[in-house]
Design a protein that fits this description.
The chain has helices spanning 21-25, 32-39, 53-68, 92-99, 116-130, 155-158, 211-215, 225-246, 264-273, 285-288, 295-305; strands spanning 3-13, 17-20, 43-46, 77-81, 106-110, 135-142, 164-174, 180-188, 196-198, 221-223, 256-259, 314-321, 325-332. The chain is of the alpha/beta class and 333 residues long. Bound molecules: coenzyme A (COA).
């Protein structure tokens, strides 16, 4: 048997509460026109009080498990990507293992922010190809709203991010004749670690967290938007071309590119650089904002539901984000 990985099921979850640009206008000095022009975002979802990252992940996971025709007994391993864990430690993987009532299966956490889902997919694919596991649950979930400063001071990031979760059930398949994950390219450059980051709490200091750190704004999201933008529009197309090249493919061959939903202007720049028509690059950022590690599985799930991608299609997932990290996966769905 030639062990390969196929996507058996997808699921996603978005919190009920919709936050429009107009609502943000009432909280800070911003405008619907500014947000739409610079980012393409019209609205995003925020969790209710008490609704955690793990709660959202569990909803998305249940939908993916049902879509795959699995039961929770089929899950042999959990991979959880998030930048917004419920606890500083342990990670959300074990919380999801418990929330879903799984057996004492392994649970691993991925901390690669916007690129977390693609990194997680590459790890899952490796485990399945090696024969370590036959069935893995991969989740990206983000509860970012509590970290956003919904004030004029925090407006540069507050308007970008939203909450949500997406999940994928991955299982072993025999050979490459049917749908299968083909390969991945993963990159990082920590020189830019602080260009998009939350500095504290962190064990670089003793103690980890002080009132001064909070007062000095070190627990806030810091983003050098221009630097992120500049790198994103070159690294995104480069890593897509790398993974396509590995498999003798060209951009034209791809049925759908599902990029991390960072910003419509970034997605548009990537599309133009790859000379692709609009219908070949998926976008739902207008409705959900940037949901970091959750954005790709939410987008994939919606693309399937909307009939934008079907079994047998060649799909490329790609991401760029904090780290900086960037990565792409190519798969036959
Ligand atoms: C964040 C981003 C939209 C800002 O757009 P920009 O064209 O670079 O805008 P600037 O940062 O130059 O700011 C322009 C002005 O708008 C202001 N501004 C910032 N946020 C604002 C907001 N929400 N509403 C209104 N004005 C805002 C700035 O204060 C600045 O004002 P000034 O000229 O008086 O100083 C853009 O840099 C970007 O998309 N970067 C990538 C971010 C991203 O995708 N991050 C996630 C990666 S995974």
């Amino acid at each position: 048997m030639t062990r390969r990985t196929r996507i058996a099921g997808l699921g996603h979850y978005l919190p009920e509460r919709l936050v429009t640009n107009q609502e943000l206008e009432g909280l800070m000095d911003t405008s619907d026109a500014w947000i739409q022009e610079r980012t393409g975002i019209k609205e995003r979802h925020f969790t209710a009080d008490g609704e955690t990252c793990t709660d959202m992940a569990a909803q998305a996971a249940k939908a993916a498990i049902a879509d795959a025709g699995w039961t929770t007994d089929d899950v042999q391993f959990v991979i959880f990507a998030t930048l917004a864990p419920d606890l500083f430690f342990p990670g959300n993987g074990v919380l999801l293992q418990h929330a879903l009532g799984l057996g004492e299966v392994g649970a691993m956490d991925i901390r690669n922010q916007c690129t977390g889902f693609v990194y997680g997919l590459s790890a899952a694919d490796g485990y399945i190809r090696m024969g370590t596991f036959d069935r893995i649950l991969l989740v990206g979930s983000e509860r970012q709203s509590p970290a956003l400063r919904l004030t004029t001071e925090g407006r540069d990031t507050a308007v970008l991010f939203g909450d949500g979760a997406g999940a994928m059930c991955l299982e072993v398949t025999d050979g490459e004749a049917n749908g299968h994950v083909m390969g991945h390219r993963l990159h990082s450059n920590g020189k830019y670690a602080r260009e998009l980051s939350v500095q504290k709490p962190g064990a670089a200091n003793r103690p980890w967290l002080t009132k001064e750190m909070i007062d000095d704004g070190l627990t806030n999201i810091v983003m050098n938007g221009r630097e992120v933008f500049r790198h994103a529009i070159t690294k995104f197309p480069a890593v897509i071309l790398e993974v396509l090249g590995d498999h003798g493919c060209k951009p034209d061959d791809v049925d759908l590119i599902i990029p991390h939903q960072a910003n419509q202007r970034i997605t548009e720049a990537v599309r133009q650089r790859l000379r692709l028509p609009e219908e070949k690059v998926y976008s739902n950022i207008a409705r959900h904002g940037n949901t970091t590690a959750a954005s790709i599985p939410i987008a994939f799930c919606e693309a399937v539901q909307e009939g934008r991608v079907k079994r047998g299609d060649l799909v490329c997932l790609a991401s760029f984000g904090s780290g900086f990290t960037w990565a792409a996966s190519l798969l036959r769905f």
